[in-house]
From TrEMBL:
The gene is leuB. It catalyses: (2R,3S)-3-isopropylmalate + NAD(+) = 4-methyl-2-oxopentanoate + CO2 + NADH. It comes from Mesorhizobium australicum. Mg(2+) binds at D226, D250, D254. Its main location: cytoplasm. Keywords: Amino-acid biosynthesis, Branched-chain amino acid biosynthesis, Cytoplasm, Leucine biosynthesis, Magnesium, Manganese, Metal-binding, NAD, Oxidoreductase. This is 3-isopropylmalate dehydrogenase. Transmembrane segments: none annotated. Homodimer.
Amino acid sequence: MASRKLLLLAGDGIGPEAMAEVKKLIAMMNAEMAAGFETEEGLVGGCAYDAHGKAISEEDMAKAMAADAVLFGAVGGPKWDGVPYEVRPEAGLLRLRKDMELFANLRPAICYPALASSSSLKPEVVEGLDILIVRELTGGVYFGEPKEIIDLGNGQKRGIDTQVYDTFEIERIAGVAFELARTRQNKVCSMEKRNVMKSGVLWNEVVTQTHKAKYPDVELSHMLADAGGMQLVRWPKQFDVIVTDNLFGDMLSDVAAMLTGSLGMLPSASLGAPDPKTGSRKALYEPVHGSAPDIAGQGIANPIAMIASFAMCLRYSFNMVAEADRLEKAIADVLDSGLRTGDIMSPGATQVNTQQMGDAIVEKFRALAA
Ligand SMILES: NC(=O)C1=CN([C@@H]2O[C@H](COP(=O)(O)OP(=O)(O)OC[C@H]3O[C@@H](n4cnc5c(N)ncnc54)[C@H](O)[C@@H]3O)[C@@H](O)[C@H]2O)C=CC1
Ligand SMILES: CC(C)CC(=O)C(=O)O
Ligand SMILES: [Mg+2]
């Protein structure tokens, strides 16, 4: 069987704690299911800065470019608050996204039945929720130039970020959203702020044209992104697929995370374009959450977002659909059995730590395979 090359970049804070639980799954799948994963590890974020003064080294970038998929934990933390902007921990992740051309970030927000009461919203608002946020990941204000702080010379400074989108960038992310909608409820809601942003006017225009030209069978609606945030907490089940830009996608997916009970539940896949010859594409899988400095080192983080990101890796990078389904079912079954990390704890449930949650999911995954 062909080998499957994985690069593991655990990063900072709770990143390594969550990644340790995925490593258990990889070891088990290699030993018991002949999965053939070949893993390498590298440094990204604050730990990379500490080791060599950069948020990711050229060697680790080369490993990422050569891997079939990258699994990423989280980066950042107060320890690196004072480091120069260019080498801050988050710059490592942004470089990976940009250099690997991972323009499509899929962020599914699914409310597992067992967690309907863990959300800060009423159970009937979130029960059965299954939405997908498709976030543009290599453009917009995260990367637009100029991006600088200039000294105005009068005791004042000016901070500048630039939101830029070209037609092709909007077209390709809209295409991803429409294609995925066809495999789901066939509905796309596009979110921008065309009332105040020129890039929003273009976004709206290009999504509308792409829909008309190629995907007229999909139901399309448009919403201003601020109203979209409000609708996400008012009645999230009205949405199927949401397509939006880099910044709005970042914010709206943190909002969506809380619908599912915790940021510790939300996985993501960041995908590049398929190679026209081989059909394979560059990909990075990471939880939506950050390094959670407030709980790092205590062994209490929820590893489910990281484990569910690995399930997305099985599905999208290795076409191991049965295994991905089984892993997602293992997560649901473990939650049904009443185990909870602290962030999703509810009365009557059994509180477990990171390792115990990881072990329970590995065990359930093994049992489902038998
Ligand atoms: N992809 C990445 O590596 C990201 C990195 N960050 C970085 O992480 C650092 C901390 O950022 P914050 O804004 O605090 O966001 P965060 O996502 O790290 O934490 C927000 C809150 O959610 C909780 N939380 C997050 N993940 C959890 C999990 N798996 N289990 C239980 N609780 C969890 C944390 O304890 C915290 O109270 C910053 O340096 C930020 O730049 C933030 C977002 C994404
Ligand atoms: C560069 C990241 C820290 C930005 C972020 O919050 C995210 O992608 O979710
Ligand atoms: Mg974020």
